[in-house]
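Below is the record:
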Amino acid sequence: MRVSEEMHRFLAGLYPICRSITGDGVRRTLAAIRERIPLEIHEVPSGTQVFDWTVPREWNIRDAWIKDPTGRKVVDFQEHNLHVLNYSVPVHEKLPLEELRKRLFTLPDKPDLIPYRTSYYKEAWGFCLRQRTLEELPDGEYEIFIDSTLEDGSLTYGECFLPGESEREILLSTHVCHPSLCNDNLSGIAVMTWLAAEIQKRPRRYSYRFLFIPGTIGSITWLARNEDKVSNVAHGLVAANLGKGGFHYKKSRRGNAEIDRAVLAVLQGSGDVEEFVPFGYDERQYCSPGFNLPVGSLTRTPYGRYPEYHTSADNLDLVAPEALEGSLATYLAVMDVLEGNRRYENLNPKCEPQLGRRGLYRNIGGDDAGRARELALLWTLNFSDGEHSLLDIAERSGMSFAAIRDAADALLEVGLLRERTT
């Protein structure tokens, strides 16, 4: 089976699970991830203070429905878990339609879709439904039932740490709190799971830390519990919305960190790029001024900028297997830039060395065959002064990082370069 199909099948297996910022849905999701990569699962008790926030009580749900005056179920959690306002407290009562309407959420401009709504930090209950369904409800008394619990428990998150030659880390973070929504963010979960599995097989210059966390409160909790580790974070990315559309990169708060430059070197103008704004996914926590970590967000369609966002249309049909595989390849390419971005010293700096007798130059001059490779060799030789990194050279030359890296490898092999480690 192709990687794209494997990833989509994995995503499909997670799709029915009702997740939230706490609860068994997150645990089931992390258990599925742990079948593929080494994952340490953490439980943080409700009531734990994490900076200005408090870990909330744990929410779980088993069933929910609305029955019309004839006893027919017109809204059913078993049909789609978006039907319930996420974090709804338990309720079982009867209400006239006029009163019930205050607890119903629809999308009038998208009448056939169910919206995704939450009430994490204020106790409430409600239902989400299609506008067409709402319009068809007759007057009368409705029976409402939500079989849920909201009680002391814990917040759960997963952490996969892959040690490398250095204690310096690449932080890769994705949120696991959304229920049946595929692009946001089962796509991010799938891509990060496959990325961790691939990185685990490779020699690693950096250490890697993969976080599978509830959005916002999860990153805040991790940062509060790991202040002693954040100084090791050299680069980072937040992954979401990786199953549809072209690439989009939101820079880190620093704006010109190495991770920003690495992503741009991989995209090479093929994606949209925006400056940092303090809104979005968990990059805004990692980039808060007290941490200011070099963490950007590499997505495809950004949050809120595609019509299916936070609706029942964000389903298995929306996410393309090929887009998942392409997202994985792009993340791997960024990791390759970070791993390969080294500084070298030219051991023959006075005029150009004779490349022909070392098998690196054309035997017959005058034509353009091989010119791009030779140009990469000359750029690499000229700026390998111990001060410029390969990424610096790629940016200065306008050539791809891969071309400059290949040139450096060739020059190392014939003894014309040595790595500068200080």
